[in-house]
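Notebook B, p. 112. Complex prediction, attempt 2.
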Amino acid sequence: MKHTSSLADSRLRDIGKRVTSQRRIVMDILASAEGHLDASEIYERARQANATLSLATVYRTLKALCENGVVRQLHLAGERHHYELDREDRHAHLVCSVCGRIWEVDSTSLSRAARAAGREFGFQVTAARMEVVGVCASCRNELGQEK
Amino acid sequence: MKHTSSLADSRLRDIGKRVTSQRRIVMDILASAEGHLDASEIYERARQANATLSLATVYRTLKALCENGVVRQLHLAGERHHYELDREDRHAHLVCSVCGRIWEVDSTSLSRAARAAGREFGFQVTAARMEVVGVCASCRNELGQEK
DNA sequence: GAGTTAGTTGCGAATGATTCGCATGTGCAT
DNA sequence: ATGCACATGCGAATCATTCGCAACTAACTC
């Protein structure tokens, strides 16, 4: 069971971290997830690859990756943080306040707005996130039927 | 020391909540703060008006106000939630990743982007927030001097 | 390839924000 | 004025996240 470890390995070396199986596992999980995951989701998946990997290691790995810009920590609605690989594309999150599902949206207008807002305030923008909360189409249908 | 309680009172009655001095205090604090506050900031200010008001009451009040759309809970960077009166204007937050200060920015483009993104996904948008992270002008100056 | 060592891990305990349980207190409808 | 459902205060409980420390191991040196 070989990993796509060359990617993870070089990223780790780039940021001056040792390559460990635990870190590879966490990075592979983030790389193969389409969206963002929270720490316990990452932990559960990681346990499938290594039954003794600890939650603390998940947190420590995420922290190290965040500090080095490899991973981004998201502050969406809810109690827990979410994490995603920093793919350098700026996108927005659409959060349905009924079912809680989250969509990712590429947003060129977000990027533009971010830069404009930053310039106006003498801000050197390094990241931008937009969270749009509302009711998704399917929930609106269900709500409509109830009435 | 009269409060501007008529506003708070009617808001509370509107959402079917009893008017208590504790709730008035919390709402007045939110109304007079220009930006957003976290729970402990609200708690500290509230204690100045009522020394026995409890932190649990602050949280319960904020929760009730959030559930009724009077207050908005923000998920900015950092561990704690922030709260602000829902003034129905859509604005963005500029977060300096060096000093941690936060600015609010009126953003008509944000509003436009949110609506557009929502429409594209059949989303009925109820709230939009944008968080722009970067380095503020004064921190950039200081960093520049160090080099 | 074995030795050394600083960086990592696992575990459980600690922390910090937020919530809950319950006995007591108090708006407000009657 | 009276009753009772809703609110509050307090401390205990919960949940995510972090820390302390002893055991482990990646990676540098010979």
